[in-house]
Amino acid sequence: MAKLDLFKFVPFRLNRLGAEVSAALSSEYRERYGLDIPEWRVIATLGFRNEACSAQYIAQCTRTHKSTISRAVTSLMERQLIERVENADDRREFRLAMTRRGTALYEELIPRLLRREQEILSCLSAQERKEFARLLGKIEDNLGLVQASQPMSEAEAY
Fold it and tell me: What's 158's DSSP letter?
């Protein structure tokens, strides 16, 4: 029977790396702003978009369970960082958008997170960072992951 060297197994390495980077970044928004990881994912998704989107879209593009996103949305709405807005095309549907307070938090936090990202990637040269980003994109594309801020169609969202 073949043996698996866990420390050479790419899925394990990516998961471990992702968890470590996420933990390193979460200290920036947890301590200062009281956000947990799912709440940050909602804020981050809404923050880089120009228009409101559904909680389902956030769950899909962040690969976070719908119930986890739902709890984060409830908490963020209670803190008045995000709000529900009516969908002009379908009044039964609500989308999520940042409030002014949420946008201010996002704009204050982003430079801190970008600095932390640079610290994490400082072991790579500029060319290696570019290649790393390109290779991650290829893997994401191969797995059909959302890689853009544009909303998916209803069919793509499920």
Answer: -
Instruction: Confirm if 96 and 59 have CB atoms less than 8 A apart.
Output: no
Question: How far, in Å, CA of 57 to CA of 7, rounded?
Answer: 33
What would the DSSP string read from start to end of 104-135? HHHHHHHHHHHHHHHHHGGGS-HHHHHHHHHH
Please work out, in degrees rounded to the nearest 5, the angle formed at the alpha carbon of residue 46 by the alpha carbons of 43 and 48: 105
User: Of how many residues is the chain composed?
Assistant: 158
Whole-structure pTM value: 0.82
Domain boundaries, the chain: 6-142
Q: Which amino acid is at 147?
A: Q
Q: Which fold has domain 6-142?
A: Arc Repressor Mutant, subunit A (1.10.10)
Q: Using one digit for the tens of pLDDT, what is the confidence trace for 106-151?
A: 999 999 999 999 999 999 999 999 999 999 999 989 998 876 655 4
Tens of pLDDT, residues 92-110: 778 999 999 999 999 999 9
Q: How many CB atoms lie within 10 A of CB 40?
A: 24
